[in-house]
Design a protein that fits this description.
The complex is a heterodimer.
Chain A: E1 2-6, E2 9-13, E3 19-20, E4 33-37, E5 46-50, E6 57-61, H1 63-66, H2 76-81, E7 90-97, E8 107-117, E9 122-125, E10 137-138
Antiparallel strand pairs in A: 1-2, 3-4, 4-5, 5-6, 6-7, 7-8, 8-9, 8-10
Chain B: E1 11-14, E2 18-26, E3 29-35, H1 45-58, H2 66-70
Antiparallel strand pairs in B: 1-2, 2-3
The chains are: A mainly beta, B alpha+beta.
Chain lengths: 144, 75
């Protein structure tokens, strides 16, 4: 167990909870180590926090909470890169963009989901090859 | 940066297994065909840049706004 300084404060992170993004994320290529943090107060929003830069955290959410129809294909190369052997052992989140001081305009990036192999501890933001989704789906459009 | 001129139907090799062929030139637009192994990632640059820009925006939240956002669950 190690203590990391993160945007959400100091966190005790077990080795098993460290997710390695071998190529970082677009715009944050230098950052490799992240962890997904669940805070009771913010659920269902969770947090993808950098363990290397305490200023970086992404609000994320399970896409199927928003829309049951969300689907995408993981390419062979990504399956290989993430060492996915068992489909049941992956987790998927999408990133929320919450405009500062204007949370009603929150959007969801369904075009580039975060895929994590819970077994290998490897993660990646996958860019989907589809026109079905964009980087900016209004969160309010998912409300019933 | 290597700059070279190609005509329609001509191609270049990058390494041993990537071939880039000029298929069609029409005004300001060039149609290119790329043959490459699956392991080679091919991405339109503006798409990568769009994700990059969105990620940079996504870290600019105000933690005080979160409660407002998570409310959507109580529907």
């Amino acid at each position: 167990m190690l203590v990391f300084k993160t945007k959400l404060g100091e966190l005790d992170i077990d080795d098993k909870e460290i997710i390695v993004f071998e190529n970082g994320m677009p715009g944050f290529e230098q950052l490799r180590k992240f962890s997904v943090i669940s805070l009771k107060e913010t659920l269902p929003i969770m947090w993808l926090v950098s363990l290397e830069d305490e200023h970086i955290a992404f609000p994320i959410i399970d896409p199927w909470i928003l829309t049951k129809d969300y689907e995408f294909e993981i390419s062979d190369e990504d399956v290989e890169e993430l060492e996915i052997k068992d489909k049941e052992k992956i987790a998927v989140w999408v990133i929320l963009t919450i405009p500062y001081g204007n949370p009603k305009e929150t959007t969801v990036n369904l075009l580039a989901p975060i895929v994590v192999n819970l077994e290998s501890g490897k993660g990646k933001q996958i860019i989907l090859n589809t026109e079905k989704y964009t980087t900016k789906h209004k969160l309010s459009s998912f409300k019933k | 940066m290597l700059v070279l001129a190609r005509k329609v139907g001509e191609s270049i090799f990058i390494g041993n297994d990537v071939e880039v062929k000029i298929l069609k030139i029409d005004g300001g637009e060039v149609k290119i065909g790329i043959s490459a192994p699956k392991s080679v990632r091919i991405l339109r640059k503006e798409l990568y840049e769009e994700i990059m820009a969105e990620n940079k925006k996504a870290i600019e939240f105000d933690i005080k706004d979160i409660s407002e956002v998570s409310k959507f669950e109580n529907r």
